[in-house]
Amino acid sequence: MAQTLQSVSQALKILELLQQHPSLGVSDISELLAVSPSTAHRLLSTLLESNFVKQEQPGRKYQLGPLMSGSRTASAVEHCIEIATPHMLTLRDTTQETVHLATLTRAHTRFVAAYESPHIMRVTSRVGRQLPAHATAAGKILLSALSDAELAELYPEGDLAQPTTGSIGTAAELRRHVAHAREVGYARNMSEAEPGVGALAVPLRHPAGGVVCSLTVTGPDARLNPTGDVRLSAHERDLLRQLSATARSIEAELRY
């Protein structure tokens, strides 16, 4: 019985380690758990058979499997919210605009945290809401982290729903916007999700290099870009500078 409990405890520790690291090999697990390579291999083989972990190819490192991948995503987002909160409050106070944290759920932007602008005329919290990713700055910067194949799977050729007259209308147009976001490192929304609302978004990357969330400053177009110019206004450039600096500060504290 004691040996069985020890094996269960070690298996749970492996899953915890894989939540903190994108992939680990037998030697990594052996060293981190202070067990022999044969014990590490036995534990990983058991977890592999039950789909708790996976290997892309035999002999390669292990990752969380289908039964646990959602857990890792949830843990990473919760960790990101925890780390980002004080930085978001500071950004809200310095920009005087609403600040959001968002994730990507298939082809939708899901808002997971927000701090509202103190202005009477402001964008209110979107927490709990989902909006089409192609119509939001947060969604477009998150889509820019996908491969071309992943993007094509989400958006086959054809027309896209347009929440406003300013929304992206086709998959081809979306690809151009995503390519631009990859190039410049930010995405912009000008009345694309809701009339009169603009936003700027940057990615938040975890230590392994993937994107876990997007950080967004949102406000009325009348303040962000009163002339409606396709070029960034002076105010938008200042917001983007503060947004990017905040993202770097958050990323420096992310563990997974």
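^ that was protein a. below is b, sequence first then the tokens
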Amino acid sequence: MPLFSEMSEQSFAEMMDRSMLQRFPARADIIREGEMPDFLYVVVEGTIDLFATRDGVESTIDILYPVSSFILAAVVRDEPYLKSARTLAPSQLLMVPSQVVRDTFTRDAAFARGIVGELAARYRSVTRVLKNDRMLSSTERLASWVLSSARRAGRDSFELPLEKRKLASYLGMTPESYSRGMTALEQHGVSSHGATITVTDAARLKEFVRPAMNEDI
């Protein structure tokens, strides 16, 4: 991944010597909001749910797939996690000790550039989400998510990565508006059966989303 691609071979070897690759079952808690960061995590296999909790209610902030890192900002700044993480499927994570990340950041300029690039990409991703929340209807956000998920899966049909209630929360919808939105998308080239979503007409779905998104799908 870009985070490690330009760092020196020696720095990379030293970092990997002090890191570990660990497997987790589905629904395993990885980190908890408010704790201090011990590791930088990289998703090698599986799916990760990043979420926050208030008054006992969980709200999904992001869903991560291979290959991506999480809680990099907390590690670099040595500050508490702002969110929790849990596996949605059996997953394999690379765990890099936080102090190793900070030490390497100080002495390896290429790795430091990789961190800046990774944080910049995350910033743009958050900005895109905020734009969608402000400028798209809930049905348009759902349509955009369906297109992105089908592209990631590499096929027209895919399984929901999490329960519908949590997916609705992630998209800024109520469970009821999610159901209405999925019904509305039937006329735009989407069908659903249980946890399986199928894009039956990608061109029609893109036509529905693109004018609102004002960007490539």
